[in-house]
Specification:
This protein has two helices and nine strands; from the N terminus they run E-E-E-E-E-H-E-E-E-E-H. By secondary structure, the chain is mainly beta.
Length: about 160
Amino acid sequence: MAIEIERKFLVRNDDWRAWADAGEVYRQGYLSHDPHRSVRVRIAGERAELNIKSAITPIRRLEYEYPIPLADAREMLDLLCDDERVDKVRYHVRHGQHVWEVDVFEGANAGLVLAEIELGDENEFFEKPPWLGEEVSNDPRYFNMNLARHPWTRW
């Protein structure tokens, strides 16, 4: 069984960019919109994945991820995701002992920047970078599945 423990934060400013990698374009859509489970197809660069998540707590989920053919992913995004997609560029930023994923959203969520950290344990200590803003781990509006259906720019 695969467990994901993830905390999510708003980003206060662009100071993180000084330590970021080049970033990678992500295009993703959802095949299921159940509030407690999601089935996602994602294209990241030239890779494609099918992902299944089920919430245990707001920051702890069962997660299963499988590579799929890129052509299949493109077809699923075009035919099965009803234009409810999330487009973003993901950057990796090392701070302290962890690597943060900083997502700069595009399209209907343009202007939103979120930072996520994956932890090995819900109580694991991590150093918060100065560019980190308010924690939104418990706010379902910021879940990518919900951003696909109810974009940040329309709140």
